[in-house]
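Hi F.,

I've been meaning to write this up properly since the lab meeting, where we talked about keeping a consistent format for the predictions we share between groups. The idea is simple: the sequence comes first, exactly as it goes in, then the structure tokens exactly as they come out, then a line or two of notes. No screenshots and no reformatting. I'm using this chain as the first example so we have something concrete to point to.
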Amino acid sequence: MPFPEIPLADGNTIPSIAFGSGTANKGKDIHEYVENALNEGFSHLDTAQHYMNEESVGVAIRESGLSRSDVFVTTKWSGSNPDVRQSLEISLVKLGLDYVDLFLIHFPEAAKGKLESVWRVFEEVREAGLTRSIGVSNFTIKELEELLKVARVKPVVNQVQFHPYNWAENKALLEFHKKHGILTEGYSSLLPVTRYPGGPVDSVLARAAKRLNATPTQIIFSWVKAKGVVIVTTTSKREHLREYLAVGDLPDLMPEEIAAIDEAGSTGPSSTLRLITLSRTAVQRWRNWLLLSILLTFVLYAMQRAGPLTAQES
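Output, unedited:
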């Protein structure tokens, strides 16, 4: 069956998988990718002021021909404009919408030292109909506790990085969310297969994938779904869009498969894999330094060669 809508604590609902316009696409015109996502069946679009591509999302919504009620739109306040209401109004102009369905504080740092006053404006724009629901992103338990002390309207969502390798450290956070009626949204769930291939979860994913005639990517999303977490993902390829949405039609993972992914994920990617990742970064930096050194050497050599010629000409 397709991905269901999940009830929010404020009485609204949210589609349980979202296409994100994400950091990887920051500042890019991605309306074609977003329009492909809508055409393939995504109904939840996740964007942010920080991504600098809200206009692309707006273009895709208009060109899709879908009615406003058929698309759930999330955007996030980055804090670059301290006037929260004005920043949301600017986002709405860029998106070509009268309201968003969900408005989040993107980073706790954006509201540092002024959380109560910022949240009060979030409550006001919700009351004014500029957004239907309000929430946060990347908040820890401590930061949520601070917010709940002053909130008149509680956040309905906390969007965080969520994958098997950080499940152990996120477990307490998800329990806190459940206790306070906060839904978890998860991004970067595919890191085990994109950044840390060959890690301890790979064999567990492969076994489940074989049983369900699925891909490891689909098993990760099935695991996220089993945790009651909304999936936030992105891709530029139509075949991946179809692969992701097909997870909604897969049979549920068995409890022992979920437990095995939890257990393998708790060990994290091997230290060797972490070292490889760090080494790749170091190699890239060394390569850039080397190219710069060669260029500077060439420039200095050229200047030295030009010196005597100039003197002779004079």
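Notes:
The longest strand covers residues 131-137.
The longest helix spans residues 271-313.

If this format works for you, I'll send the rest the same way.

G.
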